[in-house]
Each structure stands twice: as C-alpha cells, then as structure tokens.
Amino acid sequence: MKVYENNIARLQEEATKLAVSDRRLSTARLLTILAAGFLFYKYLQTEEFLFLLSGLLATITFFMLVNKHRSVRWMHELVKAKIQINEDEHSFLIKGDLNFDSGDEFVQHDHPYSYDLDFFGDRSLFQTLNRTGTVTGKRKLADTLQSIKSPEQINESQEAIREITPQVEWRQHLLALARLNPDTYESYSDLMKWAGKQRTKMLGLLNVFSFISPVLMLVGLGLYFFYSNELAGRISLLLGLINLGVVASQIAAIKGELITSTKIEHLLRQYSFLLKEIEKHSFQSTQLKNLQNKLQSTHRKASRSIHELSLLFGRLEHVQNIFAGPILNGLFTYHLHVLRSLAKWRRLYATHIEDWLEVIGEFEQLNSLANFTHNNPEFVFPDINSEQHIQFENLGHPLISKEKSVTNSIDFDNQKFFILTGSNMSGKSTFLRTLGVNMVLAGIGAPVYASKANVHPMPVFVSMRLSDSLSDSESYFYAEVKRLKSIMDHLDNEQSFVLLDEILRGTNSDDKRNGTMEVIRKMVEKQAFGGIATHDLEVCNVTNEHPKILSNKRFEVEIVNDELVFDYKLREGICENKSASFIMKKMGVI
C-alpha cells in the first residue's frame, strides 16, 4: 500500500512540472508563429534577405516546438494514467473498490467451473485480477482463468510471475501505455481483417509512372521558378492534372486500405510502444524470454514494423483531406507510394501481427497475476507435484477480506473425497468455492490464499449454481443431470477435482438421497478428488463403504444468548446442530 501512496505523490509532482512545461510551450509556439509572420511581412516590405532568413528560422523553430509540445503532452497523459493506476490500487486495498473491467462477456454457463465459481461479472475473480488495457490482454486473462495448465507450464508461469512481481514501476508503465488509447473488439477485428485481405497489386506501368512523374514535376517546377520558363510551368500544370487523374483511378483501392476505425493510427502507435517496452526489457525466466523472442521472428523488431504501419495509415488518411490530398497527389502521386508501401508491408509482416499482439496479451495477463501477487504478499505459490497429493494449510477465499476471512486446512493425501455437512449459513458453499478458486489459481501458476500448499494440478469441475432454462424448456433437475453426466464422462478419461453443492435439489427427498449416494459411489469408482456438500445426514453413511477414500467433514453452529454463532471452522465428522427452524422462528416465519 505504501508503494502506491509514494507513487501517487511522486507522479503528481511530475504531472505538475509537465503541466507547467505544457503552458510554456503553448506560449512559445504562439510567439514563434507570430514572429515568423511578422518577419515574412517585413521581407515583403523591404526585400531584405535577413528578414527572409529569420522568418524561415522562426518557422523551423515553430515546428520543433510543435514536436516538443506533442511529446510533453503525451508524457503528461502517460503520467496521469499512472496516477490513476496507483489511485485505483490504493482504493482497492483500502476500500475494496474495483474500478476494473468485470469481463461480463466471458460468462459461460456451461463452463466446467468458471460460472459456478463466479469468475466473471461484478466483484468477480476476473475483475479483482484484471490489469489489462488491450483486447488481447483481456481475452488472454479470461482464457487463462478457464483452463488448467500442465505442471511444466505452471512452473514456468510461477517463475515468470515471481520475476515481474517486484517490478512495479515497469508493470505500471506497461499498463499505462495500454490505457492511453484503449482498443476495442471492433478495432482489433478490423485490423485482423485488413491483415488477412489479399494484398493490393499495382500495375507495372502505374508503378513506373509513380516514380517518373514526381521527378518530371520537380524538374518542371525548378525550370519555371528559377528560370521563368513558362513552357515548363504549363507542362508541370498539365502533369499535375494527369497525376490527380491517375490517383483518382486508384481511389477505390486506396479507400479499400483504410480501416474503418478512426483511431487505428494511434492504436497501432500504442501497440508499437508496448512492443518496444517488451523488446528492450531484460528477462531471466524461460516463459518471458520465449515471449520476447517471438518479437524477433523477422529481420527487424516487431515494434518498428508496427510503428511503420501506424505511419502508413496516418499518411493514407490524408487522402480525405481536401487541401493536402490534391496538393500531395498532384505533385508527387503521394497516395500511390503509400499504397505500394502498404502492399509491401502486408506481404512482409501481415502474418505476424496476430502473434505480436498475442505476446502483448500474454504479458498483460502475467502482469495482472503479478499485481495480484504483489497486493497479497501473504499468499504462497503452491508446490506442484505429480504424486496426486493435494494439501492446503490455512486456506482462504482470495475475494474475502483478510479481516473477515476464516481459514481452514485440508489434506487429500489419504481420503480423496469428502462429504460436507453443516447447517444453513455455516459456510459449506463458501468452503467449496474457496477450494475451487484456489485449485484453479494453483493450476494457472498463480499464488493461492494459504500459508502452505502442495498441489497436483488436474481439471476442475463444479456444480453449484445451475438454474432453469426457459428458452431451452429445460428444468433445473434436467440441467443438473446433464452437468453430472458431463462430469462422469470426463472422469472416464481423466482424473479430476470435483466439487458438488447440494445436488438433485429438483426432486423428492428419497430420490435425492439415493441419487446423491450413487453419485458419491461413482466418484469413488472413478477416483475423483474433491467433495460434496449436503444437508442429508444419512448420505454420510456412504463413508462406511469406503473409509479409506471417503471422509465426513462438517461446519457447526452454536446458539448463544438466543443468537446463532458461526465459527466457520472445518471439523471432522457429521454435523450435529441445525439452524433452519431457529432462523425461521427468529424472523417470524413460523
């Protein structure tokens, strides 16, 4: 928290200095252009060469100040973006504010675990982790959260996250660059469509003409202005009209190259800055170096290539300028040269664009996980094993504040599957979610909320929050049976970690009890890890059939001074106390 407070103070001071520079440069620009105008006016009056020379120097100075001013304003915007980043982090740690994208578009009701564990949406795990600024980064983070990695990949991710976690300034710089010109799914899609288009070909004669015509134009204008050759002037005028006609014949091809998104030039510039930061940074971990090497797949750096494309699109858009377009094309067939350069760029680099942007996305999702690690220094990276051992000590839910969180320990070394009982509101569902979320975090290379963890990564399946589907005419019961069938089918092929919460709620008590017990027997038969929560204490008798594989665990509640007291501590055995009738009486329902 202190690092964010210090950053805010330092960056605000820097922003103040840049704001002063901004105002001074604005004033200097105004004075310089006024001086240039005055000097040219005096030259017209006196024809003194000194006034002309001074006017030209003032004009050059003006354009230099314009470039400097643009750079200062860009730096000012970057610093303000960094201030916002630090304020968001500080606000999150102090008040729990989540000023980050929630990833609603990634909700999948049929996903094995992400919907049941609330991975996306308001106050979700995704929103807590998300520190991405690009479409690819956001998608990469969502994809990462929805798939378990291999042990080798987990170890590589842990190494990468450990490396960049303390590099707060670099990580924030990367995020600030991404936020300067936020991209959209539309702009990303437009860029990918452009890259995939068949490249525009210019006819041979047209290609030759685009080089010869500007040379002839310069010669003709030189003869006219320096030697007063009127014939050269008339020929130059005719050639200018011919140039405009030739360019006009290619206007469909030129406009066909324009991407519909108006900010594509700035967006590509942003991508180039991000790529440059990744290219020039020094990394030690295998995963980060491999990602960095992907940006060296051509004869020059990816950042330079993307920056060139940004410049080309900027030049291409001049065709829509009613003043610059006719002048540039009349003199130099300007847009034919831009069209040819774009065609060459597409031929050389178009197949690499998606890979380059994927690298940005990978760094952003790793940045998000590193930020999560930095904000939770008490979390631990689990040891990854191949001996089917799963153990958590002092396990908690990462989305519950440390002040309110109650931790529990659990070991699946001997008994691989537990039956969890407890009264209403005693913590059963929260504990299942806690297990599920931390198993996934362990499976993607992130730290977990525990004092110690040893995990054998495996697919995770959760059935907790199914609902009726009116659009599919599907009942709650049938939806749940389908989910259970999907889990069973997967268990036939691969050992998995399964969490079930009060299954078969859409049927009568006897059917529910018998069905639940049969499901548990199937879990034993298919060697599943995990657990099931139930209110039916008779279900716990199944443990007698497989005492070495199944265990009973419970959460208890006490009534103290006519009030329910929950300690949310996991215990061995079957629940002994009930609370439903007591709660209904307290609320006047019965």
TrEMBL record:
Residues annotated as domain DNA mismatch repair proteins mutS family: 415-585
Keywords assigned by UniProt, alphabetized: ATP-binding, DNA-binding, Membrane, Nucleotide-binding, Transmembrane, Transmembrane helix
Pfam families: MutS_V (PF00488)
Protein name: MutS domain V
GO CC annotations on file: cytosol
UniProt cross-references to Gene3D superfamilies, sorted A to Z: 1.10.1420.10, P-loop containing nucleotide triphosphate hydrolases
Any single biological process term in GO: mismatch repair
Keyword Membrane tagged: yes
Classification of source organism: Bacteria, Pseudomonadati, Bacteroidota, Cytophagia, Cytophagales
The species this protein was found in: Ekhidna lutea
Transmembrane segment boundaries: 27-43, 49-66, 202-227
GO MF assignments: ATP binding; ATP-dependent DNA damage sensor activity; mismatched DNA binding
SUPFAM superfamilies referenced in this protein's UniProt entry, alphabetically: DNA repair protein MutS, domain III, P-loop containing nucleoside triphosphate hydrolases
Keyword Membrane recorded: yes
